[in-house]
């Protein structure tokens, strides 16, 4: 997108109407290699002339669809950019109106949407870093303070989504089934395949005490895994359900911190895989993908209680008239998803936390149906046993009990 077109876009945007002319435009990667899988994230820095004649620097974020085997598979199956634009222009806009209606002063949970160019497959968004927001480093899972703020934010988001549904502004039938619970290709490539590499890593470098666990996991067929995962997310019609974010993990959250480094505000980014299900799906995905496993083990009960309080108090604040889920309802939903979360964590967390940028090659994974593309050395690194060992034992126990 050249600067002349960008001038037109900004002149029509309510985000910064003071910009009159762009003098200079510079584009550079906003994230290092390996930090985003389905999009290329660019930072656009502009030197501009304001309405009062002064020169200023402004920045924006551009998301451009990736090319390649995996990206095209994701795009074709999920219509990622179309889904995200719809969330920004419909759902989040209505949530903003809802906050205004009820005087919610906590601030939005998203960034400002600027423009979508279908021809260029580019989404232009507010640069949250310019407002003091940053991601938590991918290789350092979130601590308890970040987890508490994130779960409070999930509660607010789910509550607003449910109120919009009650008002007829969200249709539960308007979203595709969640791929991680329903699509055989994705479950094979992103759940079953990495565990096979983990098993090889266990046998290669974990020591004899792990041989029994490796043997038991190697006996799990793809068909058995598929059934267990699908069953775990198949909630009945009496379950409290709402629109889920769908990909609420570390890289898709940005935090603002106070002078002591404590998180005080949070924004979700990347709304490409919204789906309709129990909100416990989002909570499980977050807890097992993003926070320090020791923090999760030691604080799971209180974190779920915090999420439930945020959800129900937000439903009350936004005038929801329907039946609210009890803490027991949420606990039962979380218990049902333990298998999904534990398998997801043990098979993928090492790839997420490694410093390596070659942990997995999604193009090769999808091209070979999971036979290639995962780096065995990732599962042999120092600290992997301490990181996932306890949950791996729990996963084997789940199979022994079934």
From TrEMBL:
InterPro entries: CHK_kinase-like (IPR015897), EcKL (IPR004119), Kinase-like_dom_sf (IPR011009)
Gene3D superfamilies with a match to the protein in the record: 3.90.1200.10
UniProt-listed SMART domains: CHK
SUPFAM superfamilies noted in UniProt: Protein kinase-like (PK-like) (SSF56112)
Domain CHK kinase-like: 123-317
Protein name from the UniProt record: CHK kinase-like domain-containing protein
């Amino acid at each position: 997108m050249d600067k002349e077109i960008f001038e037109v876009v900004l002149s029509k945007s309510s985000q910064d109407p003071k910009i009159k002319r762009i003098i200079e435009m510079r584009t550079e990667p906003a994230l290092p290699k390996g930090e985003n899988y389905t999009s290329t994230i660019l930072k656009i820095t502009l030197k501009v002339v304001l309405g009062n004649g002064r020169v200023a620097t402004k920045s924006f974020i551009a998301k451009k669809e990736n090319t390649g085997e995996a990206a095209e598979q994701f795009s074709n199956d999920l219509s990622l950019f179309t889904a995200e634009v719809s969330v920004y222009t419909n759902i989040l806009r209505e949530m903003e109106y809802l906050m205004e209606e009820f005087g919610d002063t906590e601030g939005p949970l998203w960034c400002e949407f600027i423009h979508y160019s279908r021809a260029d497959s580019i989404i232009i968004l507010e640069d949250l870093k310019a407002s003091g927001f940053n991601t938590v480093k991918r290789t350092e899972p979130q601590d308890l303070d970040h987890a508490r703020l994130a779960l409070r934010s999930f509660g607010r988001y789910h509550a607003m989504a449910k109120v919009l549904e009650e008002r007829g502004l969200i249709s539960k039938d308007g979203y595709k089934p969640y791929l991680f619970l329903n699509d055989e290709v994705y479950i094979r490539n992103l759940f079953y395949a990495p565990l096979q590499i983990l098993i090889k890593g266990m046998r290669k470098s974990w020591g004899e005490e792990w041989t029994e666990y490796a043997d038991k996991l190697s006996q799990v067929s793809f068909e058995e895994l598929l059934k267990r995962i699908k069953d775990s997310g198949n909630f009945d019609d009496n379950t409290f359900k709402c629109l889920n974010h769908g990909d609420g993990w570390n890289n898709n959250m940005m935090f603002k911190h106070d002078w002591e480094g404590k998180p005080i505000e949070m924004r979700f980014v990347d709304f490409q895989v919204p789906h309709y299900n129990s909100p416990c799906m989002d909570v499980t995905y977050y807890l097992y993908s993003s926070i320090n496993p020791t923090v999760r083990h030691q604080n799971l009960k209180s974190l779920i209680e915090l999420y439930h309080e945020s959800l129900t108090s937000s439903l009350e604040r936004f005038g929801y008239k329907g039946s609210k889920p009890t803490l027991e309802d949420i606990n039962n939903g979380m218990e049902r998803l333990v298998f999904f979360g534990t398998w997801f964590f043990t098979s993928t967390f090492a790839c997420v936390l490694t410093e390596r940028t070659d942990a997995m090659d999604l193009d090769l994974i999808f091209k070979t149906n999971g036979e290639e593309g995962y780096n065995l050395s990732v599962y042999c690194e120092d600290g992997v046993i301490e990181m996932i060992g306890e949950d791996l034992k729990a996963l084997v126990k789940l199979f022994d009990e079934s």
